[in-house]
């Protein structure tokens, strides 16, 4: 074994023994010129960490170790990590820098000093903070109304991030949960829409991801109104149905299904609306029609009446007569109450 390799081996052995001996306690206040290194160094992942220790002119040997692995002795680099560099080696300070810190660099570091034949050590605990990151989140979902849905949003970071859920749609928006898993039992159509997962800690801005839940439900006819039209004029019957997926519409007169373009009528469907148009109303067109809306989950129907001007007048007269009778009854009751 050559002189230089033998010397490095002995030095390494001595430093490791120095690191383990019971005498290696934090420096006492009476040890002038050598101050204890800071207890904790906290840096964000990707930043640089500076580990520093005060020394004096009595120091004969000095080294930085990570656990029992030697990083530097004086000006000599022992670490093979290119991110570890010597920053300062003066009569008053000995410091190294770890560049682009990652989570694996976290832990205890020791500055070992030989002075007047008395070994001393000071310790630094490197804490690496990691911004929040959502690693796994549920995909967009399509479910039937009444189903049970479980959403996941798995996040990492140091400190551990807090995960929160928010819901956004036309009728509601706001906080709905604070766990990595969000369970929705018996989901309703009002619970469809965007769900936002946010992972947050104090290291940086929250990581935010979104997913969409589509809730299928059977048709519900929300609007179907009677319409009046004169003979020879245009008349339009309307039918509106809410449904997911969108409803398909059919029109019937009594038990006969109407076809587009036959009998002088046109059927036009657009989104949640259906229109039955009569371009030239005749007496035979008057009457009761049925709008049927259906999708794979079910169907719904409603009756719509196409009437002529006379029917509208008769309806108005009937309404007026009914109001007159009601007024007469109230008048009689009032008169009787006075006796």
Write the layout of secondary structure elements.
Blueprint (H helix, E strand, L loop, with lengths): L2 H18 L19 E5 L4 E6 L4 E8 L2 E5 L2 E2 L6 E6 L3 E6 L8 E9 L2 E20 L3 E4 L4 E10 L3 E7 L4 E5 L3 E4 L8 E8 L6 E19 L1 E2 L6 E10 L3 E6 L2 E2 L7 E6 L2 E6 L8 E9 L2 E10 L1 H28 L3
Parallel strand pairs: 1-9, 10-16, 17-24
Antiparallel strand pairs: 2-7, 3-4, 3-8, 4-5, 6-7, 8-9, 9-11, 11-14, 12-13, 12-15, 15-16, 16-18, 18-22, 19-20, 19-23, 21-22, 23-24
Overview of the molecule:
This protein is mostly beta strands. Helix content is 14%, strand content 52%. It contains 2 helices and 24 strands. Strands 1, 3, 4, 5, 8, 9, 11 and 14 form an 8-stranded mixed β-sheet that branches. Strands 10, 12, 13, 15, 16, 18, 21 and 22 form an 8-stranded mixed β-sheet that branches. A 5-stranded mixed β-sheet has the order 17-24-23-19-20. The longest helix has 28 residues, at 309-336. Mean pLDDT is 84; it is low at 17-35 and 312-324.
Descriptive terms for the model:
8-stranded mixed sheet; 2 helices; about 350 residues; about 15% helix; single chain; mainly beta
């Amino acid at each position: 074994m050559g002189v230089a390799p033998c010397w490095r081996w002995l030095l390494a052995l001595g430093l490791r023994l120095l690191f383990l001996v019971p005498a290696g306690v934090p420096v006492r206040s009476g040890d002038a010129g050598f101050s204890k290194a800071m207890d904790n160094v906290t840096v964000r992942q990707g930043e640089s960490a500076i580990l520093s220790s005060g020394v004096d002119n009595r120091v004969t040997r000095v080294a930085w170790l990570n656990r029992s692995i030697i990083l530097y002795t004086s000006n000599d680099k022992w670490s093979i990590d290119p991110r570890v560099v010597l920053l300062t080696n003066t009569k008053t300070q000995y410091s190294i820098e770890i560049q682009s810190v990652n989570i694996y660099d976290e832990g205890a570091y020791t500055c070992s000093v030989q002075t007047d034949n008395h070994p001393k050590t000071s310790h630094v605990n490197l804490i690496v903070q990691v911004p929040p990151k959502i690693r796994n989140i549920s995909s967009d979902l399509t479910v039937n109304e009444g189903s049970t849905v479980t959403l996941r949003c798995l996040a990492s970071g140091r400190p551990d991030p807090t995960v929160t859920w928010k819901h956004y749609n036309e009728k509601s928006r706001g906080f709905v949960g604070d766990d990595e898993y969000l369970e929705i039992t018996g989901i309703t159509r009002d619970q469809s829409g965007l769900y936002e997962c946010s992972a947050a800690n104090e290291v940086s801005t929250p990581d935010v991801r979104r997913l969409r839940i589509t809730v299928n439900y059977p048709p519900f006819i929300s609007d179907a109104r009677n319409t009046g039209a004169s003979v020879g004029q245009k008349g339009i019957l309307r039918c509106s149905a809410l449904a997911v997926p969108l409803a398909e519409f059919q029109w019937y007169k009594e038990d006969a299904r109407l076809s587009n373009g036959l009998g002088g009528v046109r059927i036009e469907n657009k989104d949640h609306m259906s229109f039955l148009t009569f371009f030239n109303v005749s007496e035979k067109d008057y009457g009761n029609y049925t709008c049927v809306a259906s999708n794979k989950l079910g169907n719904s129907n409603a009756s719509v009446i196409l009437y002529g001007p006379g029917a509208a007048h008769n309806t108005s007269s009937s309404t007026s007569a009914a109001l007159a009778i009601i007024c007469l009854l109230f008048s009689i009751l009032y008169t009787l109450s006075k006796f």
